[in-house]
Specification:
Elements (H helix, E strand, L loop, with lengths): L3 E5 L4 E2 L2 E2 L1 H13 L4 E3 L12 H15 L4 E5 L5 H13 L4 E5 L8 H13 L4 E6 L1 H4 L5 H10 L3 E6 L4 H10 L5 E4 L5 H6 L4 E4 L6 H12 L3 H17 L7 H9 L16 H15 L1
Parallel strand pairs: 1-4, 1-10, 4-5, 5-6, 6-7, 7-8, 8-9, 9-10
Antiparallel strand pairs: 2-3
């Protein structure tokens, strides 16, 4: 079961190459902080700009560094069903715990097309699969009806990362799906509200920076301590918002660079933060770290 706090890992670059040493240090820090799992090669990992060999390398190193100490969920989705199947099978051979499958972007398939896309992938792997619903990026919404249908038809589709921004959607999924099918928040600022109506975890960007705090917030709520969890949510809420004042993962990488953990470099078409937004982020972080 996917439950807890998962970090959508950034992919560090140095001189436009994957910075493997920085990536490994980042993973070790996540594990030391008690994170449930890591998600390499997702949106935060700049998957659209990674070559096939880089995708393989990043996932492989994540598995090797984790050594079973946390779950590794590889981002293997694509808007090509055949490519998504190939990526998922390749990740399975590398020993990942599960795979994250984003909705097919740009094509804008019907709900029937979405069902057949995910069903086809599920048939070709034994991995545990997490659907990823993010209409703002993909231009398509995986409807609750389609999620229910997939859960019934595909035993290895067991979770969804919900980034629609809708508390109602999470409520509906909680009511209509069996308890063993889990919902994870795809938005840091909505993690606590989503937990309140049935989600059981988060795939977080901010946990690249504060893994222990995000993991504690989720654990506290799941253990029944809503008040203390709410306190952490309120404390970190300004960062939950400012981590997205420019396209993800630019703010997260910028903050990690300020800590000396890696370069802030992202690949085009992503660019460095504006001076004004960088200063705003620096002030938000200073308040948290003081």
């Amino acid at each position: 079961m996917f439950r807890g706090t998962y970090t959508a890992l950034v992919t560090p670059f140095k001189n436009d190459e994957v910075d493997t040493e920085a990536f490994e240090r980042l993973i070790e820090g996540q594990i030391d902080a008690g994170i449930t799992g890591i998600v390499p090669v997702g949106t935060t990992g700049e998957s659209p700009t990674l070559s096939a060999s880089e995708r393989h390398h990043v996932i492989e190193r994540a598995v090797q560094v984790a050594r079973g100490r946390c779950q590794v969920i590889a981002g293997t989705g694509s808007n090509s069903t055949r490519d998504a199947i190939a990526h998922t099978q390749e990740a399975e051979k590398m020993g990942v715990y599960g795979a994250l499958l984003v909705a097919p972007y740009y094509n804008k398939p019907s709900q029937e097309g979405l069902f057949r896309h995910f069903e086809a992938i599920a048939r070709e792997t034994s991995l545990r699969l997490v659907l990823y619903n993010i209409p703002g990026r993909c231009g398509i919404d995986i409807s609750a009806d389609t999620v229910v249908r997939l859960a019934e038809a595909c035993p290895n589709i067991v979770s969804i990362k919900e980034a629609s921004g809708s508390v109602d959607r999470v409520s509906e999924l909680a009511v209509r799906l069996p308890n063993e099918f889990t919902t994870l928040s795809g938005d840091d600022s909505l993690t606590l509200p989503f937990l309140a109506v049935g989600a059981v975890g988060v795939v977080s960007v901010v946990s690249n920076l504060f893994p222990a705090a995000v993991a504690r917030m989720v654990s506290l709520f799941l253990e029944g301590n809503a008040e203390e969890a709410r306190g952490l949510h309120q404390k970190f809420f300004p960062l939950f918002k400012d981590a997205f004042i420019e396209p993800n993962p630019v703010p997260a990488k910028t903050a990690l660079a300020w800590r000396g953990m890696m370069s802030a470099d992202c690949r085009l078409p992503l660019v460095a933060m504006t001076a004004a937004n960088a200063e705003r982020l620096r002030q938000t972080l200073a308040k948290l770290e003081s």
